[in-house]
Each structure stands twice: as structure tokens, then as C-alpha cells.
Amino acid sequence: MRQSKLFTKTAKETPKDEVSINAQLLIRAGFIDKLMAGVYTYLPLGLRSLEKIKKIVREEMNQLGGQEILMPALTPKEIWEVTGRWDKIDVAFKLDGDGGKQYSLGSTHEEVVTPLVKKFVKSYKDLPVAVYQIQDKFRNEPRAKSGLLRGREFSMKDLYSFHKDEEDFSDFYEKSKQAYLNIFEKCGLNAVIAEADGGVFTDKYSHEFQVFTENGEDIIFSCETCGLHRNSEIVKEEKCPQCGGGMVKNKAIEVGNIFPLETRFSDAFGFSYLDKDGKEQPVLMGCYGIGPSRVMGSIVEVNHDEKGIIWPESVAPYSVHLVSLCKESADIKKADELYETLTKQGVEVLYDDREGATAGQKFADSDLVGLPKRVVISPKTLAEDSVEIKERSSDKVEIIKIKELNSRLF
RNA sequence: CGGAGUGUAGCUCAGUUGGCUAGAGCAUCUGGUUUGGGACCAGAGGGUCGAAGGUUCAAGUCCUUUCACUCCGACCA
């Protein structure tokens, strides 16, 4: 992508209505734009990062056996009355249609997915089943905050699993933990599993995936001896319930959450199956959520410095920022050629070919946008058939021959 | 939803006890000079002072209402 063609621009000054680091940097760098509190547009750079996160999520969900679907965001009142949740979910956005018809914008999808899967699953031979979608969720948060971390419209991957018995459910649930850890690791986040309240669905705990950072809004107690993590909401005393060791508390961002749903929804929708003996048995369910948009915000919260974002390679919108300081047409031509060559080879390059910007502006913008590698091409480097290469995460600058660049980028 | 704060140019902000034609920096446009860490000079364009109502000879400034945004709390992925 030629930066001169990118319709967004970077901003030198911090927006006054954003306090969180993720929103400040993502807005300044031209990744997102705020429409209203908790609702953001994804600009070209931001959309690329978001899509990369979603791709990582998809890979792991598919690996886990999940089948991707896309359910409607617009849902009828009737399905929520089946479970008694029409008036219970107070963050639900509700809409009035013609003829007294009422709708809700999806804040979660158990009421859609359970009758959906019920249509196709009748026998123990049809189980287990896991389906997922990646969609925008709508929740009328009483207080949207912290940029992408708590929005009113946000990207969510929600997976639902259906099982014939407890053993099968547990097996899948444990596998899902590993899939989640894989996702966060690939996204450059160091997440831990914390036990949390199971909510109204189960007596068991649910499990949260937490990334430690001072800007998090959850408090996690961690045992220094056995490594157990627990959300402060279920910690009654500051002593490890598992080994009795001392616990320390830290702030963290919840980037994922998995729940045993047991038969809460299958019972409500009359979803059962026939076992080998032809007997009707209840279907056990689990649900598993990750917010890709929140993950994106979390990545920025954890990976930045005073100059800007430091994207992990896996989720960076482009992997190389080719910064041209060339002025003469012969030099510009060489820079253009390098951009085209790299792009043809499959390297994702953002090419700063802007004519008006000074070297200082280009360097500052490059640090702000935070692509993993910066390659500078200038009259100086061209005099030696070279470019300068630098990692965003390091101060080390190297001059290398242009023909050696390939081996350094792959 | 309770408490607090902020709304003035695209962005960040000044604007005194109410007083002349509402300002600066950045950004944008024109011309010139610069050219490896957010340059410089000269000029130009850009405003329903969040909105509505009120007080006053006169309101960005005072009063009332309202909307938006932010923070703390409660709630929550």
C-alpha cells in the first residue's frame, strides 16, 4: 500500500476525549475512528489488524472442530421469552417494528443457536457438535469505556458446543482452553486462565483468559506457590484455596471467557437426543467467547512505547514499513521498484512514498503506526546500493545491501 | 443509573469583573527556502462559541433546560 494513497492521516496530538492508551494510539495512528462512546469505525490499517486476529481465531476454532456459521444480529422477542431472558438482559438493545413486533439486537446467541442445532441433531450419532460465528455484538453498556476494551458494538467470536454427556463435554472444554491459549499466544498476548464465577447457568466455575496490565479493569488473585489464578469476584480470602499459599493481586484485561451451560438452554428449547437404547437424554452445552476487537485493544495496551504502537508480526497490518526519503526521480524510481518487488514476493509492505513529508515526520509516523520492520531507502543508502533496516522493538539500525534484503525479511 | 468534570476552527487549546470585527499553535491551500527525527519565511481559506430558551443597551462569558463526551462508582465480554 502506498501511504500517499491512504485516505487516513496520522495525528500528532492526542484526542482529548480518550484516556485509554489503546484508543489514543489507535486513533492517532489512523487505525480506528470514534463515532460515539463505545462505537468505532475500523479504518484501512485497523481493519487489516482486526482481520488478522479473526483469522487466527478461525484457525484455532476450526482446529478444535468448530464449524463456522453466521447468525442474524436482529432477533425476535419470542425466542428470548422461551428462556425468560427478554427482560433479564438489561444491556440488550431493543427495537420496535410494525404491528407491535419487537426485536433485540443480538447481545449473545444461545437463543438462536440452540433451536438451530436442535433442527439437525436428533441422535447420539449426531453429537458432539460445535458451531461458531464471528459477528458484531450489541450491548448497551451503562458505561462504555477504555476505547476498544468496552464497547457498545464490538466484534465477538462465540462458539457453542453440544454434547451427549459430561465426559464428552469436559473433554471438549479442556481442549478449548488450549485452543484459546494458542490464539492469545499467536496474537502476542500472554494470557493466563483464571477461575471465575459461573454465573446463573452452573454451579461450576467459568474460566476467563486474562492478560495482566495496569490498565485492566479486572482484579486477579494469583497464587505464588501453585500458580492458580482467580477472579477477585470469587476470592473470599487472600489465601490459595488449592495449596494454602499466599496470593498476590494484579489488574488484568479479560480477553476471553468460557462457560459450562449444562442443560440451561437445551431444557428451555426442549433439545434432547436419543441414546443407544432409544432413550431421550438431555444435551449438554458450553459457550466460548473471544472479542477480537477487545483483543486488538489489549495488544496495543501491552505492546507500545512513548512513540507509538509495537505490533506483533502476526497481527500487524503490514509487516514492513518502507520509508522513502528519496527526492530525485532516479532515486524515487529505485524506491518504487523495491516496493513493487517486495510486494510481488508476497511481503506486506506499507510504502511511505509521500512527497510532502519530511524525514522527521516519516520516522515519527513510522514509530506511531508501529509495523514490525522499518526499511529506509534514501540517497545516502542508495549510494551504496543499500537500505537501512530496523525492528520497531529495537534501537539497532543496520545498513544492508538491497539484494540481501530478501533473506532478512523471510 | 448515582457522583464529578469538559464542550470555542479539522485537531490541541487561550479568551480576565459581560464590552469594538472571536484568537493562537498544529493541519489545509499558494509562493519561496529547506531536506535523516514531527523545519523556516510570507500570504490565504476555515466558526451556528454543543443545542434551546432567558436576563441585559450588550452574552463565548451570567441564569434555566437539554444533548454529547470523559473520569470515579455500580454493572458487565
TrEMBL record:
Protein name: Proline--tRNA ligase
Keywords attached to this entry: Aminoacyl-tRNA synthetase, ATP-binding, Ligase, Nucleotide-binding, Protein biosynthesis
Class of enzymatic activity (EC top level): ligase
GO CC aspect terms: cytosol
EC id: 6.1.1.15
Molecular functions per Gene Ontology: ATP binding; proline-tRNA ligase activity
Domain spans labelled Aminoacyl-transfer RNA synthetases class-II family profile: 38-312
A GO BP annotation: prolyl-tRNA aminoacylation
Reaction(s) catalysed by this chain's protein: tRNA(Pro) + L-proline + ATP = L-prolyl-tRNA(Pro) + AMP + diphosphate
Keyword Ubl conjugation on entry: no
Xref: Pfam families: HGTP_anticodon (PF03129), tRNA-synt_2b (PF00587)
